[in-house]
Amino acid sequence: MSQTYRHPDLSIDQQHALFTAARRLAEEFTGTFGTETIERFLHTSYDQFAIHGKIPNYLPLLAERFARQRLHALARVEGHSDGRPVVLFLCVHNAGRSQMALGFFQHLAADRALAWSGGSEFAGEINPAAVASMAERGIDIAGEFPKPWTEEIVRAADVVITMGCGDACPVYPGKRYEDWELDDPAGRSVEDVRPIRDEIERRVRRLLDDLDIPAA
Fold first, then answer.
1. Which site from 18, 28, 94, 149 is most exposed, i.e. has the minimal number of CB atoms within 10 Å?
2. What contacts 9, CB < 8 A, 6 or more positions away?
């Protein structure tokens, strides 16, 4: 990692973790992106999570995961697509509705399509009631994390599903948009989240039908 991207507020361990993350990403995207692009995406991703006060020891890992997603999105924008459709689920906090939709889509579409999610004001953690209600359906979303959306992620998507983010949701020409009116599971019990979960599953299945993607 170049000296240009050293952050004065990082501990030695955090700096080492980011160096290691940059090397992994450089190996993964060899021939697609150069070191400068990879480091810029990694460090801007880190800064976005740091602003929200997430646990410092996890920030390099979150930054690496989000930077990887952003780089894959940028690659698609620049013409490096494998032909699979991409669906982007957006809500306010990226902690409940969009995460449950992402979980169902990934579970049902398997490797036949890609799905990402994001929030206009992303939260610090996934809604525990959403995690528990999805676990009842055999889908584990506990390993996911709230994140923002970025320009390249929206541009790479073929379908954008919005859920309550209103005017904050990004609009780009040439994309299919759907607005799903769903209750926000924030602050609700698992019992109260179940009907929201079931409605999300119904809509995801309908979306897969529309995209001619067989559900697993």
1. 28
2. none
Which residue type occupies 28? E
Token pair 């190996």 is found at 27
Measured between its terminal Cα atoms, the distance across the chain in Å is 41
For tokens 């999805």, the residue is: 134
- Report which DSSP code applies to 146: -
CA dist., res. 87 & res. 106, Å (int): 10
Q: What is the set of active-site residues?
A: 91, 165, 169
- Cross-strand pairs, 162: 90, 179
Q: Name the nearest CA neighbour of 20 among 63, 51, 79.
A: 63
Instruction: At 6, list the tokens.
Output: 């050293």
pTM: 0.92
User: Which structural domains are found in the chain, ordered by start?
Assistant: 3-77 (1.10.8.1060), 86-210 (3.40.50.2300)
pLDDT tens for 5-53 read 456 577 888 888 999 999 999 999 999 999 999 999 999 999 999 887 6
